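Collaborator request, handled under Task 6.
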Amino acid sequence: MGEFPIALKGAVGHAYILEGTPADRLTLGHAFAKSLNCMAAYPSGTLASACGECISCRVFESGNHPDIFFVVGTKTTGIGVDDVRNQVVLPMITQPFKYKYKIFILDKAETLTPAAQNALLKTIEEPAPYGVFLFLAAHVHTLLPTLLSRCVLVKLGESLLTPDVELQALAEEIVSTIADMDILEAMALYRRIEPYKESRETIAQLLDMLYLIYGKRITQAASEGNTVHPIWYDSVAVIQHTKQVLAHNGNFQLSIELMLLKLTSLLTKSSTSEAVRQLT
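Structure tokens returned to the collaborator:
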């Protein structure tokens, strides 16, 4: 899936999938879109909670934002190829009307027809610098691999099967302790994961649990109006990238150790102690 580069200079990714319940995915999707075009974020270029007071925020709340589009299906069969062409591809051609990004929110993205997904590929592969796509989905089973591979996936809510208690405890330990570890301690944590290496299914479940823990924190912060710090999303992206590498038979030890090192580095380098405290 690649990286999710929300840096302090304001660089953002161009395509995200928020998988979860309607309440979770809509809450986070709307908060994310609103914050991206919040005019209070322009001077520092950081992704902060929307101020709620600027013109962009007020227009968003009115439901008439000229640069944030809610893509809907015009037929009962779902979001079709004509919907994508008329509501996404054509509007993307022109520059934003007034604000920084043109943001396209596709709720119930799991209803996108295969033809509609294929129609989106070129736009996502060669995105305009101002274009951001938010796919909000109950599940990703109906999304094509070609679309999934071009997006960052963030899992939200209780979408997983009942977890193994021991595995869940390990996932929670990783999240709660990684911020306080040095490099050697992070490398040592690999030995806690190594016994599961023979079962790729179990490792995938562990990574999904990590997704879920971080995803809940993101959703909670957004719903409470708190800042969704960039390191939260960066951490999710690191886990997602690791899962993709392992799914393509990447070296197990190297992949897991790199993931732990990156997570440690993200939290260590962050200058925002409050963000680290909330994350862990």
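The cover message to the collaborator said: "Residues 1-159 form a domain with the Rossmann fold fold (CATH 3.40.50.300). Confidence is low (pLDDT under 50) at residues 1-10, 43-48, 158-162, 271-280. Please let us know whether this matches your experimental observations."
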